[in-house]
Amino acid sequence: DTEVTQTPKHLVMGMTNKKSLKCEQHMGHRAMYWYKQKAKKPPELMFVYSYEKLSINESVPSRFSPECPNSSLLNLHLHALQPEDSALYLCASSQGWQTGHEQYFGPGTRLTVT
Amino acid sequence: AQKITQTQPGMFVQEKEAVTLDCTYDTSDQSYGLFWYKQPSSGEMIFLIYQGSYDEQNATEGRYSLNFQKARKSANLVISASQLGDSAMYFCAMREGDDKLIFGTGTRLQVFP
Fold first, then answer.
1. Which of A99, B19, B61, B96 could be joined to B100 by an S-S link, Cβ 3.0–4.6 Å?
2. Residue among A105, A109, A110, A112 with most chain B CBs within 10 A, to mutate
3. Does B36 touch chain A (CB under 8 A)?
4. Does B99 contact A97 at a Cβ distance shorter than 8 Å?
5. By three-state DSSP, how is residue B34 classified?
6. Which residues contact B10 (CB under 8 A, 6 or more apart)?
7. Is there a contact between B109 and B88 (Cβ–Cβ < 8 Å)?
8. How far apart are CA A30 and CA A34, in angstroms?
9. For residue range A24-77, what is the model confidence (pLDDT) as tens digits?
10. What is the pLDDT of residue B99?
């Protein structure tokens, strides 16, 4: 089973709202990732959690706040977003690069900020 | 800095024909990994194939094969016997460090009957 699930599939929020994106994997992977993808562009890495600890933050604005409650769950808390934050947000997980293991992606959450 | 280049913004192929999607990379590392992902219009990134820099044989996964030419720093994806469902965006990617994946700009493949 190589499934990564994400909820919700679609989200529309105002600039003053607070919302959260959720990601779950049950493959026992040690690393989880958040990516942002604008239309017709490749995904851009936002955050990496390795063994439930934040290991990479790609200088993401503080209005995006990641959380890893346990090894299977990854959240992305959103607050005071801007219209330019509208994008597809992808979650991924990986066992690790040492054996060349790939990242498995979820279906994404399409976020629209109004 | 590592870099991935995909020079074909779009490609067309007839059903049942083979197609090659180009990818070149630039790195000074001796150990690296190369990946291809497929992204249909639904948005999910689907892993297709992986090639390690020390792998002597080209990777193959079903109808997908990776033409790895290390000296030329190229890692082209070959899709054999194209199907209508192969129409999608295809991204070449390279591992950077332990956890970062550097993506190319992608190639949109359209398969026609």
1. B96
2. A105
3. no
4. yes
5. strand
6. B107, B108, B109, B110
7. yes
8. 14
9. 998 889 899 999 999 999 999 999 999 999 999 999 999 999 999 999 999 999
10. 80
Distances (CA, A) of B92 to A24, A31, A111, B35: 25, 21, 25, 6
8-state DSSP, A3: -
| Residue tagged 């017709």 (tokens) | A40
Whether B105 contacts chain A with CB within 8 A = yes
CA nearest B5 in A: which residue?
Answer: A42
Residue A84 structure tokens: 């330019």
As given in the structure block, the two tokens for residue A107 are 């279906």
CB contact under 8 A, B99 and A50: yes
Map tokens 């990776």 to a residue.
Answer: B66
Express each pLDDT in A74-100 by its tens digit: 999 999 999 999 999 999 999 865 556
DSSP B84: G
* B68: contact with A, CB 8 A cutoff: no
Indicate the burial class of A1 (C-beta count within 10 angstroms; 0-12, 13-18, 19 or more).
Answer: exposed
CB contacts of B91 in chain A (<8 Å) are: 42-43
The structure tokens listed for B83 are 């199907």
Nearest CB to B43 within list A96, A97, A108: A108
- Would an 8 Å CB–CB cutoff place B35 in contact with chain A? yes
Predicted local confidence at residue A97, as pLDDT:
55
